[in-house]
Design goal:
The complex is a heterodimer of chains A (676) and B (147). With 676 residues, chain A is an alpha/beta fold. Chain A has 25 helices and 12 strands. Chain B has one domain. In chain B, helix 1 packs across helix 2 and helix 4 crosses helix 6. The radius of gyration of chain B is 30 Å and the shape is elongated. The chains are: A alpha/beta (676), B mainly alpha (147).
């Protein structure tokens, strides 16, 4: 194993003073706020309660202040148009000499969406004239047999549309061991040695060709760079919820990314996609182990990206987040429930990093990345505990009035002291630290997009709506953390959706407890602690309105209404990036080419696809084993369909068995022709 | 396997050809010839497929393919290149003509490049303070207490 690499790799110039300023200010502001908090704590509570309140306050305030100071430095960097120091920028016209694989790992995604994005990327790479330096791989982990065949069919169509200079490859794994990280590892083991770099995408990723070429040039110019991450910008949103997230990402995202890049330098993180990786460095350093013990903390590493960044850094390579790299896009989950479903996965992956956090030889900044990831989810239950303890103290006063005279003889009563002004001041300070960076982001946004309309009203509306959504997300995340810690595995498939967003039934199912707790809290506070009523109102109202908020924000119609009235409008909505338009056009073409038959039936009716499928099978690894029952059942169903037109309801396993035996399908397709 | 338990050898070969988009007339004309070449076979379809193997291997001599892959790719390329309508009996010729060979090769698709094997070594993630530390601490305390 490589030793501690911070001694090998030169640090980014001036990085120490940058880190000292961000973390020093964070520490100082947390210290001062904590001292104030200690002074305003009620005097009539036990020492233990005080300690709990102080610890919870430190954790939440430090969390807020890190992002406040980071954003402030991000703002300052953007205002001065400073680039990240320590990285050599190439000339734009430089010819690239290396070979890059563009990897698209997929798992039961929309095949037309995936391939249309790749076609658009390929078309854009072609405009740079450097297309021969890129190969594209679709790395499928798809388990749905119908999507598998659709992927193969559309891959063939896409090959007819793509530049002949760009190779478009497709392989499907028999077993999706270790999910996405295993998928990438499989690529590295089989083909990695043939490439200098790999650009990893997500199914909804889009990247401009020029950006990809720039990333390759950067890798060539900076031979110690292991990973370069291009921050993705959200596009293609339609529902109100996703348009709001998209706007927030567009306006506040740059100062956040710039702030992170400011203090991370060459020890940055990897976000799992829209990044370029040096293949050799990845092969040498990033073979992920299976963590000992059972899930959720043991087993295969789920959120592999942070760990890979830490390992590549440990192995002597730098990792960079470069906000200067534009033309990198992704999509946002359309509804709050989809967003929460994604959070459920990320939450488990990030909490698992508790096991990696104290691993030997990691760079301290890698440990900070893990801590930030863990805190992104733990901050919710911490905030919830903070609220509950505060509420319990207020209720305690109602049920257990303070003892004005202690048991020790005294002439004067002991008045419970509660510094209301001090508490309000701290509350205002916290709100300021949360909201002020949003306005800084708005300033940068307005400087860069002078013609943009409705940015201020959108920011104000986003602040109000995100304040309403925040307690709902707090409840979701607290539940996720509790489930994960108690080792409960909960399925989070969002099947119950109507054509236009979340259905009322689904919303009630997911948010019933939020609504219920909101109502109960509001009643209890109004009855027993009325002085807290208005303070608690943003939280209780968010929870009480969770069902209608979730349904309303998931719909496309309010999203379109908002767009029409210049709410949450981003420049990419007025003038969509060419690559997004190309992708849409390709998607329409691909969908139009799709036959009506699916899975086995598509192969039955299209001998050329059946032949293609048979040709492609060996690359997909050895045929998995199927039980005798599955084999017999699949063949009987197929035979019944051929002989008696009984439409077979194949189980997933039966259909997959048939797909691994195209000769059976071929014979079944020949059989009906005997009659004629 | 799906049972094919009816009809004559000619019928099965004709059905096979029709599946590959040969017309009725073409299929009837070719069936007799193919029957003579394969002789009596238990699995007719497999036997006809085997007829295609030498020509497939010939055309794709530069590709590393299994027998099944070569036959599948040959069928695929034939169907893509205009199929029976354009090339007819050429499909079964042992020595393919130059234009046919060229047309077939133009349709070759490569779904993955040749392997360039590497091995990603599994990295060690050893905690600075692992469970053993606490175990030892606890264990030592236990021994001390026993004394």
């Amino acid at each position: 194993m490589s030793g501690n690499i911070s001694t090998v790799l030169p640090d980014t110039p001036g990085i120490f003073s940058r880190r000292l300023s961000v973390f020093g200010l964070m520490g100082l502001s947390t210290l001062l706020a904590t001292l104030k908090w200690i002074s305003v704590l009620p005097t009539d509570v036990s020492v233990l309660t005080k300690i709990v309140l102080i610890v919870l306050f430190i954790l939440t305030f430090a969390w807020i202040s890190l992002f406040f100071w980071s954003s402030l430095f991000g703002f300052w960097t953007l205002l001065r148009r400073k680039k990240v120091p320590g990285i050599v920028w190439p000339e734009s016209q430089e010819q690239i000499h290396s070979k890059t694989a563009v990897l698209m790992p997929v798992y039961n995604e929309s095949s037309s969406g995936v391939l249309s994005n790749l076609l658009a990327i390929a078309k854009d790479i072609e405009t740079t004239g450097q297309e021969s330096k890129f190969d594209i791989f679709i790395l499928s982990d798809t388990t749905n047999p119908q999507i598998w065949i659709e992927e193969e069919y559309l891959w063939l169509q896409a090959k007819k549309m793509i530049s002949p200079k760009i190779n478009l490859y497709y392989r499907r794994r028999v077993k999706n061991t270790a999910r996405k990280s295993g998928n990438i590892e499989d690529f590295c083991n089989k083909w990695g040695a043939g490439y200098d770099f790999m650009i990893v995408l997500d199914a909804d990723s889009l990247m401009n060709g020029a950006t990809m070429v720039k990333m390759v040039q950067l890798m060539e110019k900076n031979p110690t760079a292991g990973i370069i991450q291009a921050p993705p910008m959200m596009i293609n949103s339609h529902s109100l919820f996703s348009r709001m997230q998209q706007f927030a990402g567009r306006v506040y995202g740059p100062i956040v990314s710039s702030g992170l890049a400011y203090w991370q330098g060459g020890d940055s993180n990897y976000w799992g996609h829209n990044a370029i990786i040096r293949v050799k460095a990845f092969i040498d350093c990033c073979g992920l182990p299976v963590l000992p013990g059972k899930a959720p903390f043991g087993g295969p590493i789920l959120s592999h990206d942070f760990v890979e960044a830490a390992l590549i850094r440990r192995g002597g390579w730098s990792a960079w987040l470069l906000p200067e790299l534009t033309g990198s896009y992704e999509e946002c989950p359309p509804t709050m429930i989809d967003f929460a479903a994604r959070d459920r996965r990320w939450c488990q992956g990030n909490l698992q990093h508790i096991r990696v956090l104290l691993s030997k030889h990691l760079h301290p900044i890698s440990r900070i990345h893990f801590t930030i990831g863990i805190m992104s989810y733990l901050s919710s239950p911490i905030w919830l505990c903070f609220l509950l303890v505060g509420l319990a103290i207020a209720l305690g006063r109602e049920f257990f009035p303070p003892a004005y005279f202690s048991e020790a003889r005294s002439l004067f009563p002991t008045w419970p002291v509660f510094d209301k002004i001090g508490t309000i001041a701290l509350f205002i300070l916290s709100m300021f630290m949360l909201i002020f960076p949003k306005f800084l982001g708005l300033i940068i946004y307005k400087i860069n997009n002078r013609s943009s309309r409705g940015a201020l009203k959108s920011t104000l509306t986003e602040i109000v709506l995100s304040a309403l959504f925040a307690p709902i997300m707090m409840m979701f995340q607290s539940k996720f953390v509790a489930e994960i810690i108690s080792r409960r595995s909960v399925s989070w498939n969002t099947q119950n959706r109507s054509g236009d967003g979340t259905s009322w039934h689904e919303a009630f199912r997911r948010h019933f407890w939020h609504m219920f707790l909101g109502i109960i809290t509001m009643i209890v506070v109004a009855r027993y602690a009325p002085e807290l009523f208005w303070w608690m109102l943003p939280i209780t109202s968010g929870l009480i309105l969770s069902v209608p908020l979730s349904v309303w924000s998931s719909r496309i119609s309010p999203g379109l209404w908002a767009l029409k009235h210049h709410f949450f409008q981003i420049p990419e909505e007025i003038q969509p990036p060419r690559i997004a338009l190309d992708s849409k056009a390709f998607e329409e073409k691909l969908e139009a080419s799709l036959p009506k038959e699916k899975g086995v039936f598509l192969l039955l009716h299209h001998p050329e696809i059946c032949a293609l499928h048979g040709f492609m099978l060996p690359v997909n690894g050895p045929v998995p084993e199927f039980s005798k029952d599955v084999q017999d059942e699949a063949q009987i169903k197929l035979e019944n369909f051929i002989n008696h037109q009984v439409l077979p309801a194949f189980s997933r396993e039966e259909e997959i068995f048939l797909l691994y035996h195209p000769e059976i399908i071929e014979q079944a397709a020949i059989l009906p022709l005997l009659a004629h | 396997m799906v049972a094919i338990n009816i009809q004559s050898l000619d019928d099965i070969i004709s059905a096979y050809l029709k599946y590959l988009r040969f017309s009725d007339k073409q299929a009837r004309r070719l069936a007799g010839d193919i029957k003579d070449r394969i002789g009596v076979q238990e699995n007719v379809i497999e036997a006809v497929d085997r007829l295609l193997l030498p020509v497939a291997k010939n055309i794709f001599s530069d590709l590393i393919l299994t027998d099944a892959q070569a036959i599948s790719l040959y069928k695929f390329c034939f169907l893509q290149a205009g199929g029976a309508k354009k090339w007819g009996a050429e499909f079964f010729k042992e020595v393919p003509s130059v234009p046919f060979r060229k047309a077939i090769r133009q349709e070759i698709v490569i779904n993955a490049p040749v392997y360039r094997i590497s091995h990603m070594k599994v990295q060690e993630i050893e905690p600075v303070i692992h469970g053993g530390f606490f175990h030892k601490l606890w264990h030592r305390k236990g021994i001390k207490n026993e004394r």
